[in-house]
Known about the structure:
Structural class: alpha/beta
Distance between the termini: 20 Å
Helix content: 25-40%
Oligomer: single chain
Low-confidence stretches: none
Strand content: 15-25%
Number of strands: 16
Bound molecules: flavin-adenine dinucleotide
Mean pLDDT: 96
Amino acid sequence: MPNRFAYDGVVVGAGPNGLAAAIRLAAEGLSVLVAEGRETVGGGTRSTELTLPGFVHDVCSAVHPFAVASPFFRRLPLAHYGLAWVEPEWPLAHPLDDGRAVVLARSVAQTAAGLGGDQEAYPRLMSPLVAHWENLVDDLLRPVVRFPRHPATLAQFGLLGMRSAESLARKWFREEPARALFAGLAAHSFLPLKQSPSAAFGLVLAVLGHAVGWPFARGGSQQIAQALAAHLRALGGEIATGFQVAAMDELPIGRAVVLDLTPRQLLKVAGPELPDSYRARLARFRYGPGVFKVDYALDWPIPWKNAACARAGTVHLGGSMAEIAAAEAEVSAGHAPERPFVILAQPGLFDATRAPEGCSTAWAYCHVPNGSTGDMTERIERQIERFAPGFRDRILARHTLNCAQMESENPNLVGGDISGGAMDWRQLVARPILSPSPYRIPVPGLYLGSASTPPGGGVHGMCGFHAAETALRDLRGRPKGGRG
Length: 484
Ligand SMILES: Cc1cc2nc3c(=O)[nH]c(=O)nc-3n(C[C@H](O)[C@H](O)[C@H](O)COP(=O)(O)OP(=O)(O)OC[C@H]3O[C@@H](n4cnc5c(N)ncnc54)[C@H](O)[C@@H]3O)c2cc1C
């Protein structure tokens, strides 16, 4: 009997989650097509010469603890397809106004050694979690609503992580360096630091820094996407780039269709097919703050006041916990902060492929209200100059992206939200809706597998992986039938 389906699996969007979903389906011997709107694969893992010829910049993600720790990516032969990690000596440095810099080193002990009066508290907090990091990641990178595989580890983490970052830092640490370090880590949550569970984000990023580091991909984050795409093709999968999907009927027939899209686009692309109640719930999905990003081509490494910063891949610029908390509170209240918390990465310092000889690159962003179109370049550069006087003299060229430009680069970045939706308590549990199977769209054969599903933002592919697993379970239980 001729196969009435063009493909077993169709995936819309070639971000890390779309590619992960496609790989998981193709690995089961299914025929798979990925439809990607842009001319290149990668979504949030694209790199290109944004500033000058010979300078390679990561358009979105640059720092990859989640990719290295991902239970799915760890199983894939990505090194075989050219993916190599570059590990800076230290994952993170956090300079302070008094000239000191706190360092998140690979070792807990080395980190603690720089924390003065908190040098005993830090290992007491971190070591038990770092010892069980694989179990922790295993449980955190799957839906919260499922029963944990490692309940004891998760409970230990949960008791700490369910707090706000400020309350955890105040309870555990007595001095500014440790508090500031933790505040900077927790600010990656985009949550006000007084809000629970911002502490969880700080803990996870610190644990991963110790367990796997915060590496860059040699040659740029695009290499992650290239390796995933090459592996997919080796499994027989196909990728059609320049295929922007506006409606479901543009897709070839697929027995399972996985969408690497956020709820707002899901409503646009598949709206008429969705049950009213599901549509209404998706419409209530909330997006988080956006980011304003600057990429720099530099004629020299950044002239940090404290030399420790030149040995770290990422540098957090925001000074004290109070200042970082104030900046994040302003963002969540809808204002662009005068002194933003800046996350800066310097891949060009550790990866010679990023810039011509003697030159370097830097990647920096700060949080801003969702949809903001203001220009934060001056404020970001003031924060860099504060800890690296003379930085501006090293700039050969810069490239900026505000929230609206982010979204036009990639429609998944709604209002500049880089996490696929706010990552607060409610949306960590109900992502995109409260359901024991959040990947299943209530239309047979249709699945959601983007960062708007658990476990959320970051380059780990686990949203796509879980969506594909759900589709595979359904395909095994369902007589042949299709949609598209
Ligand atoms: C500035 C920035 C910095 C970041 N930094 C980091 C970091 O350092 N580390 C980290 O782990 N994460 C980081 N992230 C987050 C990370 O990039 C995302 O969480 C991740 O890429 C989400 O993957 P995804 O597959 O769900 O979506 P995306 O990567 O956004 O991919 C979605 C894909 O779908 C395509 N698409 C969308 N609509 C359609 C359509 N209608 N038809 C066809 N194709 C479509 C898009 O073109 C895109 O390729 C950052 C993101 C940004 C923007």
